């Protein structure tokens, strides 16, 4: 069940665009923040709001790595391994995260606290290797920085 606040946000977003379907991504992002993932209910509601078929919403979800059909951990580690990051050791950083968190690509820790993904460019190439945890960016990563981030998040 989507909240009243989310329905109001949907009203506001849909009215902002000349073409309703242009609101699909922002609608999905706000819904995902509330629900924890892009559920079937969210897909149906977004499709209804912008007058498209649910499959068209699903196609959009398939394109954007920040949209998830399944619930993620409380903290979602998105480690970039694209070219700039790769050249500066991103594969080792991603392997380190896998070992440290005890999970692999697109997995979540049993306590639901952390999830991990290998992703495409985050637009933070000047700080390669980079990762995003929820809405926070971390750059020039090293194993020590990863340790510090995880330790900090465990305290929250
Ligand atoms: S290549 Fe990693 S942030 Fe751009």
Describe it for me?
The protein is α+β, with helices and mostly antiparallel strands. The protein has two domains: 4-63, Arc Repressor Mutant, subunit A, CATH 1.10.10; 75-155, Glutaredoxin. Helix content is 49%, strand content 13%. The chain is built from seven helices and five strands. The protein has helices spanning 4-16, 24-35, 40-50, 54-63, 83-87, 90-101, 143-155, and strands spanning 75-80, 107-108, 114-119, 131-133, 136-138. Strands 2-3-1-4-5 form a five-stranded mixed β-sheet, with helices on one face. The radius of gyration is 17 Å and the shape is elongated. It starts with a helix and ends with a helix. The site of FE2/S2 (inorganic) cluster has 11 residues, from helix 5.
Kindly summarize this structure in a few lines:
The protein is built from 7 helices and 5 strands. With 156 residues, the chain is α+β, with helices and mostly antiparallel strands.
The name CATH uses for the topology of the largest domain is Glutaredoxin
The tally of helices reads: 7
Q: Tell me the Rg in angstroms.
A: 17 Å
Describe the strand arrangement of the main beta sheet, using strand numbers.
Answer: 2-3-1-4-5
Average pLDDT confidence is 96
The first-level CATH class of the largest domain is given as Alpha Beta
Topology of helices and strands:
Layout: H1 4-16, H2 24-35, H3 40-50, H4 54-63, E1 75-80, H5 83-87, H6 90-101, E2 107-108, E3 114-119, E4 131-133, E5 136-138, H7 143-155
Helix pairs in contact: 1-2, 2-3, 3-4
The protein binds FE2/S2 (inorganic) cluster.
FE2/S2 (inorganic) cluster (FES) is lined by residues 80, 82-85, 121-122, 124-125, 128, 130.
């Amino acid at each position: 069940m989507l909240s009243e606040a989310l329905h109001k946000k949907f009203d506001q977003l849909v009215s902002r665009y000349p073409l309703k379907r242009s609101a699909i991504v922002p609608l999905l992002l706000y819904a995902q923040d509330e629900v924890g993932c892009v559920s079937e209910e969210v897909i149906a509601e977004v499709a209804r709001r912008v007058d498209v078929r649910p499959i068209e919403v699903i196609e959009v979800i398939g394109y954007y790595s920040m949209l998830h059909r399944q619930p993620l951990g409380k903290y979602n580690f998105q480690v970039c391994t694209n070219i700039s990051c790769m050249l500066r050791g991103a594969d080792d950083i991603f392997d380190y995260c896998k070992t440290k968190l005890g999970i692999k690509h697109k997995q979540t820790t049993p306590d639901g606290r952390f999830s991990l993904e290998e992703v495409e460019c985050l637009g933070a190439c000047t700080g390669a290797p980079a990762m995003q945890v929820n809405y926070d960016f971390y750059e020039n990563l090293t194993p020590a920085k990863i340790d510090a981030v995880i330790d900090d998040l465990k305290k929250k």
